[in-house]
Design goal:
Elements lengths: L7 E4 L4 H17 L3 E6 L7 E3 L12 H12 L5 E6 L3 H11 L2 E8 L6 E2 L2 H9 L4 E5 L25 E4 L7 H14 L3 E7 L15 H24 L5 E7 L2 H9 L4 E7 L6 H9 L4 E6 L1
Parallel strand pairs: 1-2, 1-5, 2-4, 5-7, 8-9, 8-11, 9-10, 11-12
Antiparallel strand pairs: 3-4, 5-6, 7-12
Helix pairs in contact: 3-4, 7-8
Family: Belongs to the universal stress protein A family.
Organism: Streptomyces sp. R41
InterPro entries: Rossmann-like_a/b/a_fold (IPR014729), Universal_stress_UspA (IPR006015), UspA (IPR006016)
Amino acid sequence: MSIGTRTITVGIDGSRASLDAADWAAREAGRRRLPLRLLHAGADPVVPARIPDVDVPAGRARSALDRAAIQLSYAHPALDIIARSTDTPAVPALLAEAAEAETLVLGSRGFTGFAGFLIGSVALAVAAGAEHPVVLVRAGELPEDERMPTVDGTPPSAAPYLPVVLGLDLDHPADDLIRYAFDTAAVRSAPLHVVHTWTLPPLRGYAPGMPLPGDTAEREDGKRHVLTSTLQPWRHKFPETPVSEQVIYGHPGHHLLKSSTRAGLLVIGRRSGEGLGRAAHSLIHHATCPVAVVPHN
């Protein structure tokens, strides 16, 4: 990716969810020392503006894009913020932005009564087709939600970051996916927890929690060795990032959802040219932290 296209871009539609996603995107842009680009797609375009020099003519009602840009410029005064609107429909506009941005961030409404996402068709279509990573942020996500709880009076903003969790398929251990996870953990000075899940065809008489048959246990040991070997070069590239590894028998959706309850970000892969699989759909809808969907070959 060229230096000129390195931005964090967020879709703005005026909803609470998109504003919470924009605040997450602003923090991510600050961590990565990149510009933040705000995009409003659809009807009622406004004149492009560079923030903080937003000049809204007297008597004109501020648009959702204007309001978001102004709020973010006050909350993140050191950030380079660029606001743009287009009358192109949302999905093609966001996919075009995703092709240029380092990361595209989208908001989603939270389920009422329990943690999780309620993802609209636009967000799903973009996450399934974008050329670069897409991060989905649920409504209500706060800065302190990505950090360790504090109990000794430490300000939340000074608390260490929660781990980044990477779900890794050892049959397709794509460099783009692993690089994104390591880099994301590094810019946070956060630990990285890598999870590989695997299954066999149904075993007669086996129930979850029972010891695996001998040959199956040997397969699991082999997968642990492969995971360690796969990550070894990345540990050398990111020597200051603590890395933990977990190989576990079972379905990825279940175990990665459990891991997401103790994570600041969940990173999952999507093979380029393919849509979102069943496990990815489950994780996107129900993870309790933001989810990054990273396309790879």
